[in-house]
Amino acid sequence: MARKDLDPAADDASEDSALTRELLGEDAAAAATDAEDAGAPRGRFAALRGWGRVFRGNRPLWITSAVAVASLVIGLLVGTFVVSPVEAASRADAPEPGLITVPVEFGELSNDVTIRADVGYADAVEVTIDTATLSGPAVVTGQVPEVGTELNALSIALEVAGRPVIVLPGDLPAYRSLRFGVSGPDVVQLKNALRSVGIDGGDPASNVFDAQTSAGITALYAAVGYPAPSGDEGAAQAVSAAEAGVRSAQQAVAAAQAELRKAQSGADPVAIKQADNEVAAAQRAVNDAIAKGNASEIAAAQDQLALTQLQRQQLDAPADTSAQRAAIDAANVQVQQAQQDLQRAREDSMAFLPSSEVLYLTGLPRRVDTVNVTRGAVLQGAAMTVSGATVRLTGSAGEADAALLQVGGEASFELPDGTPHRAVITALAPSTSKDSSGRWSIELEPDPLSPEQIQQMQGSNVRVAIPVGATEGEVLSVPVAALTAGPGGEARVEVVEGDPRDPDAKTRLVTVKTGLAASGAVEISPLEGAVGEGDLVVVGR
Fold it and tell me: CA-CA distance, 108 to 271, in Å (whole number)?
């Protein structure tokens, strides 16, 4: 032992032996030891001991390198001998080509036009009220509706300055006040609106606001519980003054007529009797003068007799009534003027419709969507926004598809829970938008929806299917690609007999009559040959 500890060569040999076993394995190390023991040259192992020192100084590096080399060898072996199924299939021989077939279907066939539609309340419009006729500020004093309120004919949309804003059906906005004597299309609209709520506003064929229209306005305000506007301030006093003027003129006419009657009645009986007496006295004086024979007395008496006779004749002549008639004419002119003044005063006091107290809306009832005013505030701009009170589906379609549709046509869409729901086309017209590119606008009205369904669907976009053709019952149908043309242009299908995967499978041609085409399929009925549900027809090879 002491010798081993003191012999450096022995220590190196021991270390070399351990390194040799580590790098070359136990078998190789044993062989090296045997060779050494057998007297092999010690210089060879001295070199090995030198490499051993290098290996001991970089052992982690050499171990990592050995692992990398082993991994590379394993990967090459796997890549060479292991093949994926896809690659194996690609290396395999291609299968024999077969027929591409589909089965003949049996059932109802329909052709649909499909569009996308927005769900919402239709025709949203801003409500503005003409306040130009108000003498003071347009203060909102009441009747402010809540969102969701329905406005019908005779509803009060707002109360402004203590006066109502009455809802009536109509297209034209209220742009002026309507009173007796005015005429125009807005008067006709008013008469029709009054008639629609059961009030007689006069003949709609006349565009003139007349007394019957004014009476209708009075009835309108009574129906909504407000007093009707009845002319400007002082109108009632003007009517009273005009009535007094008419009475005075009529009295003047009566006085003139009395004077005329008096003049036309002739002389007074007393005056006539007195004239007769004077004629008789003159005649007796003539007779007395003749009896006396005094020529001068006779001449004087005869002159007096002639005068009294003339005076008597004047009493029998017609009286001159020109002055009395002129007085009557003047009095009648005064009566006519007074009556005209009275008529104007009465017209000015008639009930009328201020533009600030009516709101014309189409498509009643209407739903209040937004309210822009509060009680006590001054009305400025749009008071509110209203839309149709019923839900509408609004979409569009190309001109070719629109040509297949018609108002009243049925359609269907899905509710949020997936349940199909029916709708009807209510409007179909070319779009007025400049960028519509020839598209048509389509409006549909769904069958009644619950409030919960409306809330869920409001503002959503849904797919709408509109059938434009359908078979009467169940029919046979095949894809359009299954049809071929015969020598005479007749339609045919090729029916497979046997397994279509067999390259030698037999087929037969069946002449068919085609019907409705829809969704890539076409209705067929055999003319020559037989074909039935489930038969395989060729669509490609």
Answer: 119
